[in-house]
Amino acid sequence: MPAMSRYIVTTAIHYPNGRPHIGHAYEMIGTDWLARFARADGRETYFQTGTDEYGLKIAQSAAAAGVGRKAFVDEMSSYFRAMADELQISFDRFIRTTDVDHLATCQALWTQMRDAGDVYLGRYEGWYSVRDEAYYDEDELVVADDGTNLAPSGTAVEWTVEESWFFRLSRFQEPLLKLYAEQPDFVMPLSRLNEMRAFVARGLRDLSISRTSFDWGVPVPDSGPDDVAPGAPGHVMYVWMDALTNYLTPSGWPESGWQAKWPADLHVLGKDVVRFHAVYWPAFLMSAGLPLPKRIFGHGFLLNRGEKMSKSLGNVVAPADLVATFGVDPLRYFMLRAIQFGQDGEWSHDAIGRRINADLANDLGNLAQRTLAMIAKNCAGRVPANGPATASDAALMAELAPMLDECRAAHDAVRPDLALDAIWARVAATNLYLNENAPWALRKTDPARADVVLWHAAEAVRRIALLVQPAMPESAGKLLDQLAVAASARGFAAIGDALISGTELPAPVGVFPRWVATEAE
Fold it and tell me: What's the pTM value of the predicted model, to 2 decimals?
């Protein structure tokens, strides 16, 4: 049992100015694996995801669609919620930044930062990307072939001049560098930490945290009586300040009891927004005197032919289309196993299909199907009798023994691929065990020994299925059903148990069909 019993994990909240694509699904699936693993490991787990619904880009998209802003985000957010449900994302809260409690938390955080002396009224002049909802310094810009200025992401920037409230970000340069030095896993993987350390070390400028050029946002609360411009009417919060606060909102802060859901153990987000989470967010929290999240993990992009999903490139793929083609669990498995979570990774229909056939149908599917089919045929459909263990049996059990600890280490490293590598090493070991002991041949000469071999193979499938649950909950559940494993015995604490000989089993049914490509794919 892990020493720390509580586990709080979040995705970044998704910006619903368009429908969700496979990149959104990738982040949700990876974070869901983390949450499901922690729950199965007996930890009190809280998992949140949601949508970020304010900002100029949303206002412009609603106007282009000819609908009201709230009606627009209501519809667009529903697509993200539907995607989460279809992918079996086990969130505890789907937060929307238009939620009433979120407004209260944002304004309370602003007030606490202001009261700490870190918010002041000024004038902003600089480059702003509407698409990124981000400000950029002159030295960060890229000059296009036609001479126009672009953000590092390649998006257009425009010169913006307006009255603004500023946050004294410059005050937090040394505290942030100290944080990175004392907590080298605060930003993961290490390459992202190095990027943030270098960015902060170059010097931090105060950050504009309000806008007056539009009103679709959280209103800035009235200023205190000692401020230069009490009230400063017409200001709404910079969308990233509003968005980042979503992580704190479900805790109920500043009301009593907020410590039950804060700080988060892990924020999971794309590598393109690490700066906001690893620089701005901890600085806001430091100013307000609040605990920081324990770790921030910036995952890579999901690429198709080397390109990130983008509406402008016309390569966006809807998650629902991939689910219809491959099924939920096989899609989840591919994203978790085939790609190292901290790095960019390639996907294609063929790549997903090959994984389904090789790993699921041939490896785990074949192991489970032939084991259960032999038990159904030769053991009257009951868990076979165990008996004296041979060296081969003991070797298989020894191979299975460290599997949970290896998966826990992978979970701590935010590497679902490593956990699945560890599990599939045991799938291979059990298939080899079956081939070497050949219970189908033993049945003719030593049926008691054949039963012992089948018991060990079935027990291996039970342990494997338990640890596969966070990746493929429905498929693993079907395997455990066929082994008559009770719902109360499906947590990782039950790995130390064993199948009980004589238990009646249902008729075996294949769980992982082979994938056959169609012309359309």
Answer: 0.92
